[in-house]
């Protein structure tokens, strides 16, 4: 049983494609053993009372040198060829975790030939361990064990439900309400705006705040907060933007100090206006303007103040002051157009062109959309991936937030123009992302029909825009959950898995944490990001009632802008 303790030996592993809902994950990594014993092997037949390890049984499996898919609560049983010296058991039979630390456990010796190792708190899921039988172990007759051993263990999924089962409708409401708390309780208190991430302190985000404002209309409608409370919070945000935040030709920066209103540079040259973030903000503000339609003083003032901010944005200035037929992402008060980043499709920024064309004061014309965003039609794709045609964008569709951010308010159902049917675009993009995860060509642990979704998120060593062409083994719950209108069955399956099966690792006070990697056992504990949390609340509501879509699409300015750009909107969409 086991392997002889020798210098490290790398072994290739085979991975499972897909993930059956009720089966543990096939592991992805096996830690290496380290030399700590002699060169003897278990092939030698012990004579008399000579001591050797005869078998290891873990979770009902035996006869293996490496144990995979081990349940975290599995019993570890070691049988020997002779009775043991009880005084040598504890020091010579033990578990090490992936970092080499000894696992707190008890060695239960039956007084004869069997030891049962019991970790005090169980083993972690998706974790690697080494079971050590060291060469200091002796038999009752005083004979040292023939050779020490290292048995490699990789745990899988604890398939028990971490929370009581509730109906799908109750679960959807629970997720919306808990996630909304990020924008309500977790907001920066002076401005009321959304913090960039859980740990951002006074740094607030413009686009994420737009998502949060949309979430507040959902919260008011569902009774998570009162309508008056939501109105007051949005008013605090709007007043802060109007009176304290620095704007640039009406546009706002990516990051703002939520206490002073000063711009916080996103990078050396990105210290001024961010037009995409501004677009995501106004998608939310126009949704709020449509929702708070009461005649009382508070709602009337809020609408008027949103309108003043809306009409102040000089969208056409961002064509390099009318010299080019494309919108530019950034402008700096001291560096001008140094970032020099045109906003061109396909990505998350369709909403920017729609809003720019919708402006009643500083609009762009159709030619800026056609030549700038659509690149004269060059944003078309038309190829098939996993038997699914992708109308627009890069191969395999790119990260899923491209199918979310512009479509929190802009309803893709029944929306089309010269370049695409946008319902087909977002649905097919999502199906390709899902199919890729089920196929799992890189063999990452856990990927499958219940655990899928690649988008921009934290990763163990930073942040990246995950996609089928940039797959780092990290799943972000927002990817599948914010796709609920497009793939309801697949997204609901993912939600159940994230909540019931991984809830002890993923669920928190502000909903699901940002991301996780089952191959390495990494979980982004305690971390949430505004632009990932917001779409969960809003897109689940679009799936359930269509409220955000109905509000945004009812705006007369937006309707005029869509018409200007040549969009067709089917009645009832």
Annotate the secondary structure layout.
Elements (H helix, E strand, L loop, with lengths): L2 E2 L48 E6 L2 E2 L3 E5 L5 E5 L8 H4 E4 L8 E5 L4 E6 L8 E6 L15 E7 L12 H17 L18 E3 H17 L4 H17 L3 E2 L2 E2 L2 E3 L5 E2 L8 E2 H17 L5 H16 L17 E2 L18 H9 L7 H8 L10 E2 L2 E2 L25 E2 L5 H18 L16 E4 L2 E4 L11 H5 L6 H14 L1 H4 E2 L2 E2 L3 E2 L4 E2 L6 H15 L2 H7 L2 H9 L3 E2 L4
Parallel strand pairs: 4-10
Antiparallel strand pairs: 1-10, 2-3, 2-5, 5-8, 6-9, 7-8, 9-10, 11-14, 12-13, 14-15, 16-17, 18-19, 20-27, 21-22, 23-24, 25-26
Q: Would you kindly provide a written description of the structure presented here, covering whatever features stand out?
A:
- The chain is α+β, with helices and mostly antiparallel strands.
- The chain contains 15 helices and 27 strands.
- Strands 1, 4, 6, 9 and 10 form a five-stranded mixed sheet that branches.
- Helix 2 (168-184) crosses helix 3, helix 3 (206-222) packs parallel to helix 13 (530-544) and helix 7 crosses helix 15 (556-564).
**What distance separates the N and C termini?**
65 Å
Query: In percent, how much strand structure appears in the residues?
Result: 15-25%
The number of helical elements comes to: 15
Give the tally of β-strands.
27
Quote the average pLDDT.
Answer: 91
What is the 3D shape?
elongated
Largest sheet: 5 strands, mixed
Could you say which structural class the secondary elements and strand pairing correspond to? alpha+beta
Uncertain parts: 1-45
Short description:
The protein is of the alpha+beta class. Helix content is 31%, strand content 15%.
